[in-house]
Amino acid sequence: MGKPLCTFLFLLFFINSVFSWKQDEFRNCNQTPFCKRARSRKPGSCSLITADVSISDGDLVAKLVPKENNQETTRKPLVLTLSAYQDGVMRLKIDEDQSLGPRKKRFEVPDVIVPEFLNKKLWLQRLKEEKTEDGSGTLSVIFLSDGYEGVIRHDPFEIFVRESGEKGKKVLSLNSNGLFDFEQLREKKEENEDWEERFRSHTDTRPYGPQSISFDVSFYDADFVYGIPEHATSLALKPTRGPELEHSEPYRLFNLDVFEYLHDSPFGLYGSIPFMLSHGKTRGSSGFFWLNAAEMQIDVLGQGWNDDYSSVLMLPSDQKRVDTFWMSEAGVVDTFFFVGPRPKDVVRQYTGITGTPAMPQLFATAYHQCRWNYRDEEDVYNVDSKFDEHDIPYDVLWLDIEHTDGKRYFTWDKLLFPNPEEMQKKLSAKGRHMVTIVDPHIKRDDSYYIHKEASQKGYYVKDASGKDFDGWCWSGSSSYVDMLNPESRSWWAEKFSYENYVGSTPSLYIWNDMNEPSVFNGPEVTMPRDALHQGDVEHRELHNAYGYYFHMATSNGLVKRSDGKDRPFVLSRAFFPGSQRYGAVWTGDNTADWDHFRVSVPMILTLGLTGISFSGADVGGFFGNPDTELLVRWYQLGAYYPFFRGHAHHDTKRREPWLFGERNTQLMREAIHVRYMLLPYFYTLFREANATGIPVVRPLWMEFPADEKTFSNDEAFMVGSSLMVQGVYTQGAKHVSVYLPGDESWYDMKTGTTYKGGATHKLEALEESIPSFQRAGTIIPRKDRFRRSSTQMQNDPYTLVIALNSSKAAEGELYVDDGKSFDFKQGAYIHRRFTFSNGKLTSSNLAPAHHKYASDCTVERIIILGLSPEPKTALVEPGNQKVDIEVGPLLLQGGKVASVRTIRKPNVKIADDWTINVL
Predict the structure, then answer these.
(1) Distance between CA atoms of 403 and 496, rounded to whole angstroms?
(2) pLDDT tens track for 752-773
(3) Cβ-based neighbour number of residue 37 at 10 Å
(4) Please, what is the end-to-end C-alpha distance for the chain in angstroms?
(5) Would you list the DSSP string of 289-352?
(6) Residues 44, 313: contact at Cβ < 8 Å?
(7) Per-residue confidence at 893, pLDDT binned at 50, 70, 90?
């Protein structure tokens, strides 16, 4: 009884003491030695110069050495490699010289860069030498791409990308402010603070001494910078250092289990992506990515931050720029410069390195219902039947940690869930799926087969003494599988087979939570930095990638389970560059208040910009009880999140959509119906993301890059290139101001009313919907018949909504496959382009000529917005069939709706070529 009681008391204390934001639980920059040291450096303090520049194996190689007669002459040279890749990507690597015998090889993050990228290397043949503009120094220049060159300045050391030619303007640069510093590994010769660091009651050893790296990066002709998730803050990153910002914190990248996190804060949350984009009206966009899994801190430097040093820095005075300062505890310099110049170019260039988002199954793009916890099978069946009773579709029901046998993952509580396979099959009969949670903490119980195997095989992370690391989490005393080890990952993947995961079926998918990793009794609620992984890699070196490898192993397990046939679905809380290849993420343990509702939009937009398109926030807020208005508004907005899930903490009141009175049930039902109606459009966008990296939801400036009013707007967003959505973020709002960008008109999605582009409109804040608009010049595919789940909609007919622009033209696309398998990779899909011009609608094929997917689905309705004068008939070819153009509803459900010009039942198949002439 003693150990279970101890476990219970510890968890009770933890839940009561940590389930709210406590600032002193987490370190700030001054309490983080490498950050404090780096921030104390002054511009121009770097004394390194470039030497021995040459071309070798298609790269520019050089040494970085201290200047003569300098106090740093005892430091060993660093090795620099500069490489060029197709599509305007430059890679810079800086590391210790392995030929000089450093104490160990510094950690380089494996399994993030996709192999296809490495095949795009441009083999440099020659090096061009130039004098600096003032004639005092030397530049080495390499070809990067048409219109761009990579340049290394010898003294002082600086790297930059410029437009081609000696007078070419800078695009991106590193060390222009002279802040580069690289702490080399060294032998321990005396006891001092360099060899350990303390925080609260925890002490981490540092057997190799300080090993941090820091440098400045400048973005030229930029108005704003974006990216580097995850933070609950604005889309456009605010300055963290500069005049009047002396006591502010940098943006932290350190994956942590943060309860009820603060909004509008630079504090790091559950995931880390050290990728930043810039955008400005003058030039466009550029980007910078540092592949490094150690803790990172990044300053955005405000105007005037370095005015006192301008005489020694020699920065170009004719170019506006944003300066940033990047600091990391460990690793190497492995950085990538992206020239853009358009926003979508930068995202494409970045995902060309880390991979494009996985193509999800169709069901995963629909609505998910979750709670910590649905109590038992009876509760599951009751919730499922209530959705049907209230005519609300949903696709996935989720089970949190209480479904297991004592927090042992891959098991079921036999009293609460005695027949898990039967339960899943009953949901599956309606086209629905189930998700169960599998966290990384493994209960240390010798009778638990997962623990027994992992322990015997030596698959656990070790503590600094070499023993299996033992930390506390939901399961009490726990160990953590070393996911850096490919053998451990393969073993973990096998656990998802139907034989190993007893009670699982093909309709069961997985949720990875707590994978930062969360360790309740660890420093900052995570694993000690001196814990050891395969190859004696310290946890400090790979911390931010732990959840990524866990996500990868789980996803691979689901693929193995189906013999490689079916796409996996795995939701992860922690993330890192490349996570987009393995599934979805969400913004973690948010709170049921209007501020968290509001900040969900820039958080999701930032994730999309940095490759993770499949993301969402817990609708309604995880902690606390939302007022009914907030819950309704959240459903109305959440229907446009890429990942759409309602979720709540077990201490909150039940909040399924039918528990708030018939009127509010109706409003939430209509919001969910909007998502199901737009599933063909969303699925097409997910395929675009899978093919190109371009996110499903986008900042306005991604579609309107010259419109300065969009640059800092993060209250509205684009869904694809055709829809714009504006949330209502204020309680009791009577009106909402909406800026509609561009020169063309916009059509209200509910009423068809036309609004002028390039203007701000004051609209009534309607109870039944939030402002959403279709862009003139676009065609959107819909499905207007509502079923219990997306699976049951598979054979339903389509509606096309044509929104004509000032030229009476429009275009759009539709992508369809089996919604489940990997067959689309072999061409088994339908991909159509719809164009309307000169009074004619044309459907043409974008798929391979002999595509292997067939569908008998037809187009049931064609709605034409902005058509005048109003014609009466249309001619369908082939077939020479005349059909009437009638007045019909814009929407088939949702109260009062507008009447619009409609071609009903043209009897054309989505898979065929056809034209419809409006007569």
Answers:
(1) 17
(2) 999 999 999 999 999 999 999 9
(3) 15
(4) 84
(5) EE---S-EEEEEEPTTTTGGGHHHH---TTS-EEEEEEEESSS-EEEEEE--SSHHHHHHHHHH
(6) yes
(7) confident
Catalytic residues: 513, 516, 589
- One-letter identity of residue 658: W
The helix or strand, by DSSP H or E, that contains position 197, with its residue range, turns out to be strand 196-199
Residue for token digits 């790979």?
542
Q: Any idea what DSSP says for residue 391? A: T
User: Which residues make beta-bridge pairs with 862?
Assistant: 800, 903
Q: Which two tokens stand for residue 577?
A: 């560059």
What's the half-sphere exposure (Cβ side, CA atoms, 13 Å) at 47? Answer: 11
Q: Phi/psi of residue 102, each to 5°?
A: -65, 160
Amino acid type, 486: P
Amino acid at the residue 116:
E
pLDDT tens digits, residue range 862-883? 999 999 888 899 999 999 999 9
Which of 246, 237, 330 lies closest to 288 in space, CA to CA?
Answer: 237
Section 182-208 average pLDDT: 85
Element (H, E) at 14: helix 2-18
Phi, psi of 441 (to 5 degrees): -80, 125
- The pTM of this model reads 0.96
Residue type, 493: A
The residue-averaged pLDDT of 795-822 equals 98
Q: Compute φ and ψ for 385, nearest 5 degrees.
A: -70, -30
Q: What is the mean pLDDT of the chain?
A: 94
CA angle 252, 551, 459 (to 5 degrees): 100
Give the angle subtended at the CA of 611 by the CAs of 606 and 616, to the nearest 5°.
55
Crossing angle between the packed helical segments 420-428 and 377-389, to the nearest 10 degrees: 10
Q: Is 704 helix (H, G, I), strand (E, B) or coil?
A: coil
Helix (H), strand (E) counts: the chain = 16, 53
